[in-house]
């Protein structure tokens, strides 16, 4: 194998030694037969008419044959990057490496806000061909670039969770740059990876916050709320309390505007769980929620409650890390839950019941209804956010 490849693979193994153990057989096969097995897969690096290298990839089962970069790596890269919003690319995930054109372009003109890059490539042979055509040592040495190569569809979810653990100090603003040929040749794999990535991001946000600053803010809020939390009953008593019953979940999506008449008719007969943003419009429409949920450790939550009457039947349920102002602004019953087990155990409030509902208030409604045992959930206004699948 050529000098580029050996230098690159040495740096890769030094930076991520686990790859050496996991891809040992694939590496041995590549060194012996870099063009693959004619009965299964063929890989040929060719020179295009414009002097740019390209990869001719063909596969017997499932059948696939194409030039990997269309029409060439540079033109393809520029087109893709024009189409992707990179205004706040804290974490960028590459789906497919190809011969590295897009990776090189992004890192050469790396946005100042980018803090982490994760490169996902299912096929180790394509990755090895990328390493064989030029010197990538500066990228392979970088501590803020993680290579996720050669994992099966069943394994990729766990690896993407690890990527958020590795970059635990980074804001969870995620962008994806995907190679069309990777999506064409491994559509199911990268679709699964995208879903797993978003699930991993949401779960990571639930457990550790959106960033280090966000995590400290959450811890500060819990400490500020400690006296209130220690006197609170928590949500454990609500578990399975309404088993087999039906409830309505009201989120802030536009479809709620066509449902006010229905909500007025059924209130008091079917329990209504509503997001915090809905208190004011529900008051205006004469609809009274049984439960109002809140999620964010942000001053805006208090503003949603301040100055707005709370129906006698309504109870606020939210994480112990809401700002104290939010709890104080809600003039009604309040029940807190544990959002972060580590905090809860150390502060003695795990009796509030650990609960990881999701990444938006709408998700909180659904998770809470499930916890309470409701078997039928009628969703109104759930047009905007879908976290954790």
Descriptive overview:
- By secondary structure, this protein is of the alpha/beta class.
- Helices cover 42% and strands 17% of the residues.
- It is built from 18 helices and 14 strands.
- The strands form 3 sheets. It has a 6-stranded parallel β-sheet with strand order 13-12-11-10-9-14, with helices on one face. Strands 1-2-3-4 form a 4-stranded antiparallel β-sheet, with helices on one face. Strands 7-6-5-8 form a 4-stranded parallel β-sheet.
- Helix 1 packs across helix 6 and helix 8 packs parallel to helix 10.
- It is elongated.
- The two termini are 43 Å apart.
- The relative contact order is 0.10.
Unreliable segments of 5+ consecutive residues: none
**Total number of beta strands:** 14
Strand content: 15-25%
Output the structural class: alpha/beta
Query: Shape, please?
Result: elongated
Question: Termini distance?
Answer: 43 Å
Can I get a quick summary?
The chain has helices at 3-15, 18-22, 24-32, 73-83, 101-108, 124-133, 137-140, 153-166, 180-185, 187-208, 212-224, 226-230, 260-266, 279-284, 299-305, 324-329, 341-347, 361-371, and strands spanning 36-37, 41-47, 53-59, 64-67, 91-95, 116-121, 145-149, 174-178, 246-250, 272-275, 291-293, 315-319, 333-337, 376-380. It is an alpha/beta fold and 389 residues long.
Keywords:
389 residues, alpha/beta, six-stranded parallel sheet, four-stranded antiparallel sheet, 18 helices, 42% helix
Topology:
Blueprint (H helix, E strand, L loop, with lengths): L2 H13 L2 H5 L1 H9 L3 E2 L3 E7 L5 E7 L4 E4 L5 H11 L7 E5 L5 H8 L7 E6 L2 H10 L3 H4 L4 E5 L3 H14 L7 E5 L1 H6 L1 H22 L3 H13 L1 H5 L15 E5 L9 H7 L5 E4 L3 H6 L6 E3 L5 H7 L9 E5 L4 H6 L3 E5 L3 H7 L13 H11 L4 E5 L9
Parallel strand pairs: 5-6, 5-8, 6-7, 9-10, 9-14, 10-11, 11-12, 12-13
Antiparallel strand pairs: 1-2, 2-3, 3-4
Helix pairs in contact: 1-6, 8-10
